[in-house]
Amino acid sequence: MSKAIVKTDYQFPGQKSVYKGKVRDVYNINDDYLVMVVSDRISAFDVVLPKGIPYKGQVLNQIAEKFLDATADIVPNWKIATPDPTVTVGHMCETYPVEMIVRGYLTGSSWRLYKDGGRDICGVPLPDGLKEHQAFPEPILTPTTKAEQGEHDENITREEILKQGLVSEEEYVELERISLELFKRGSEIAKEMGLILVDTKYEFGKKDGKIYLIDEIHTPDSSRYFYADGYQERFDKGENQKQLSKEFVREWLMDNNFQGREGEVVPEMSDDYVTEVSERYIELYESITGNKFQKADVSEVIGRVEKNVTDYLNSL
Hints:
This protein is an alpha+beta fold and 316 residues long. It has helices at residues 56-70, 108-115, 158-163, 169-192, 231-237, 247-255, 271-289, 301-315; strands spanning 15-20, 24-29, 33-38, 43-44, 47-48, 79-84, 87-91, 94-106, 120-121, 124-125, 134-141, 144-145, 195-207, 210-214, 223-227, 243-245.
């Protein structure tokens, strides 16, 4: 099995600190730039699973690169360069403490909440009688708090965000507008590729008084896609949708009695299952970009990343 990036411990030129998230290791360079190494770790239910997924980081980074470039006319974004297949270097921004979730369909966690009787998601009322995977008349915004390391994101309403002063009303209105524009653009690109962008999350920051789109965008870790072909037929029959997202990992975990709750044990990930997950990520890359995935050389992947990033930083 190919080597996967499950841990990094770099000392880059000008490095001041490092933040290690569930999937991304983010290095602060002189409080000016961020070096985001997208690892091959995979998380679900806010738990990092025990094995890395080969090429997952490359898939996520290169999809994000495509969509950051394809939406730069809507809002400035943090990306400056991608000196390695798994790395983005970008502007350091002051992060807004909320994440903007846009949902076009009732599925995943929103369906689980609805099925259990919930008729309100983050202050958005939902009528009775909706079905799983049903399209909303218009996409809805369901924001969450941006959790500190090791904590869970929590649903929050627009009113609570403003009442707590997390974001000013003027800026929040702008974040809503930008998020819906990004979702529209992402949906248009997905449609061209025979896919449906079902739901996604956006994160934003601020630099020199301007709003920037930060982190990843429209990747299988932050988004859910359905295949458009056969969607209506499957929906009419009440069948599961054919989808490209991380939901299949969550479903596998639930089938193996794991949802991240206390006392539950993460099921064993066989090499065959890890390979299957890797292939699903590559499938999404090729489906959403229309390009053949070019596997990077991972024989010395940790050293490769270090050299490429160091060479780039030294050129700035």
